[in-house]
Design brief:
The complex is a heterodimer of chains A (566) and B (326).
Chain A: E1 20-29, E2 32-42, E3 47-51, H1 58-65, E4 73-78, E5 81-83, H2 88-93, E6 96-100, H3 111-115, H4 130-143, H5 159-172, E7 177-181, H6 189-204, E8 208-212, H7 216-222, E9 225-230, E10 233-239, H8 245-253, H9 257-261, E11 314-321, E12 325-332, E13 337-341, H10 348-356, E14 363-368, E15 371-372, H11 378-384, E16 386-389, H12 393-396, H13 404-408, E17 417-418, E18 421-422, H14 424-438, H15 454-467, E19 472-476, H16 484-499, E20 503-507, H17 511-517, E21 520-525, E22 528-534, H18 540-548
Parallel strand pairs in A: 3-8, 3-9, 6-7, 7-8, 13-20, 13-21, 16-19, 19-20
Antiparallel strand pairs in A: 1-2, 1-4, 4-5, 9-10, 11-12, 11-14, 14-15, 17-18, 21-22
Helix pairs in contact in A: 5-6, 14-15
Chain B: H1 7-10, H2 23-45, H3 52-77, H4 85-99, H5 104-127, H6 133-152, E1 156-157, H7 161-168, E2 170-171, E3 174-175, H8 176-194, H9 196-206, H10 208-213, H11 218-244, E4 246-247, H12 256-266, H13 278-297, H14 302-325
Antiparallel strand pairs in B: 1-4, 2-3
The chains are: A alpha/beta (566), B mainly alpha (326).
Amino acid sequence: MTTTSPPPPATAEQPTTPALQADGVTKRFAGVTALSGVSFSVQPGSIHALVGENGAGKSTLIKVLTGVHRPDEGRLLHHGAETSFGRAADAQAAGISTVYQEVNLVPLLSVARNVFLGREPRTRLGLVDVRRMEREARQITRDLGVDVDVTGDLGRLGLGIQQMIALARAVSIDARVVIMDEPTSSLERREVDTLFTVARRLRDQGVAIVFVSHRLDELWQLCDAVTILRDGRVVHTGEMATLSRRELISHMLGRDIDDVAAHGATGFGDAPATAGATGAGSAGGASPAPAGALVGSGVGSTTSTPALSADPVLSVTGLDARAALHDVAFDVHQGEVLGLAGLLGSGRSETVKAVYGALATDGGEVRVGGRPVRRNSVRASLSAGVALLSEDRKAEGIVPELSVRDNIVLAVMDRVSTFGVISDRKVDALVDTFVRRLGIKVSSPRQLVSQLSGGNQQKVLIARWLCTEPRVFLLDEPTRGIDVGAKREVQGLIDELAARGLGVVLISSESDELVEGSDRVVVLRDGRVSARLDGDDVTSSRLLAALVGDPASDDAAGTDPEEGAR
Amino acid sequence: MSTQATAQESRTEPGRARRRPDAAWVARNGVYLALVVLVLLNIVITPYFVSASNLRLQLIQAAPVVIVALGMSLVIGTKGIDLGVGSVMALSAAIMPLYIGYGTLPAILVGVAAGLVTGFVAGTLVSRLGLQPIVATLAIFVGGRGLANVIGGQIKNLSDPGLVRLGSGSTLGVPNTVLVAAVVFAVVWFVVRRTTFGRGVEAIGGNPRAAELAGLRRARILLIVYMVAGVLAAVAGVLAAARSQASDPRTLGLLMELNAIAAVVIGGTPLTGGKVRVVGTVAGALLMQLLVSTLVAQDVPDSVAQMIQAGVIVVAVWVQLGRKRS
């Protein structure tokens, strides 16, 4: 049936022709291979999980399956027959429906109109037969177990219900394949449960479903089969039920399964690079800092921060944000690097954004130096001495049309101006200092920031935040997408900043970077703190174990006991 | 400066410089080139072009467009647009006759205040209620002229000596309207180049999310920008009424929004926001003015002249796109 990978057994039915199949698909973008010989198939009446970290190729594969991209090599088989979708509309016409995280329906039209959009039943006069449309829409939604007023506007419903309507639409156009791309990431628990009920009902009607989610626990609740992608290749495909969480994560991260398993045995020896992990002042620590390159070399090298002062510089308690964070709490002390670990979608970025006031929170408190910071206000956080280096350099960091100089002083314009008039002298002084100390490579500070390399752009942004003289620096993936040299410089800088007394929160997807750079690590899972690693426990193997989330390592609050029950 | 490497080394995308190296230069300075070419052409083909009276006339006629376009350039710099400016001109001119009895200055102030109010309305709709700029200012476009008609009714005479001096007089040989335009230009240039506000305008136009994360007050900056655009449109309305010594709410400022947008775009300010080109905007306004008067002088029919204007706008945007791509 499938050519390379063993066909995932269709649950409760005899193996049939896959509803949709990619066979040896390769896709390149401008010389970068996004997919390499990927074979993937989903059976009718089966829910198939598609898993992988960022950049593994999931979204590219989905776009190939839905006709958005054409494969460079390989075939696409639809119910066993080779097809090629020229456009996304062709795939839709062939009965392939996609439900995205962001619902792509029309919020201002009624539910019934949305279900039948583009195929409204007509009266003899050619007008829309509203009564029939609403009757049928009511029938379809009721069949799916969704209780909703089909005459009301879609936009007035919750996001979860809207997604259900998107599914109802898929049913009404008789879709045989439904691709659900992270449908649950902005849903509440209850909405997720309803969505799953609907998805199962569709499966029982013989629909093939591809399910993408970063919430790993959902996979076992819902899926029958699983395919794991890493670096554009299929690294595993098979039954969901026989795959352990540990196996899944080791496949995703490309780690040796024994390495993940070894946590109980070793604990210390296998990670020699954790020199700085035992306490504060990891200045000279693991990452090699280029001599003298970084901030104020020598100045007040607080080599031994006296054992973490009792009062934390940053104290976060009970942070709640709708569907994203639940009761997140942690402290950061002066001179300390706190690692924030977690798989994709675990709430790492959301946590630092919430602390910074850039993500709306429903509850919780952030204290800096003991003083509470006004919630949901970036300006209040900034003036309290919190800075956030966002993970998305392009969308949330650089202002491309402005110069390096203007980008660096963007957050401190008030300080380099008098009555709103910018002082060139003050700007130059600041900019020169940081360009020199961070080694930012520019032809002139007036060069456009968009002309710099990724690493230099990152340094410009770090300079922007250091200008604010922060007491707490939140770093979200500070070394992602920059070259090796710049990466080491940034890592060295982080150590140095901590040594100079800042409280640093470090997020990284690279567990080595996290282990080497952090004094303590807080592990997040599904928006909750699932483990805390301290001192000698900050090792690669312990961290991996915590990410895997074996109950044994969940020593902190926040595991989800109610998960399986619903 | 502490420079450690050449620009070459720090380029991100190697494919960027693929296009002709001078394309970017042409895109950036095309408006000045075109202006020079058009002036030279006129010197050759238009009789009496290089006379003091003709140059005065050209500048006087360009002044309102320059003033409105400078306000527009700020709005466009935030990735917005202001369609209301023409109606605001009519509104300010329509209000003045009602208050001219109190004196010249009060009438002018009330006229300008009309722009402040409409700008506040548009700015609030955009910055607080999140309306798209084109929708918010379309409301001003329609409502403003409607209100002007209600207030003004029909053409009103405005033969106040103070206003006549403002509209038709000169100071040290320079027409007063041109002086006002020059002052507005100098202030806007200073604000954009030298102040935190100008930097804020470009930052929220270039990357609103990054600007907010850097602590900039996006809503406040937007509100002020629309108020400035409204005030400048009102100033242009006052000047136009003062010059014609009458206010006609039906025709005053008609199509001004389009001329102003054209001047801004031709001047090299991208409609996608993030950059305000003040000198370019003035050059763009002068270019359009000169183009029209050249065509009139050559007895080109109005309809053809309009099509030629359209062509110039298209070419200007196209050259800009080339710069974006290169």
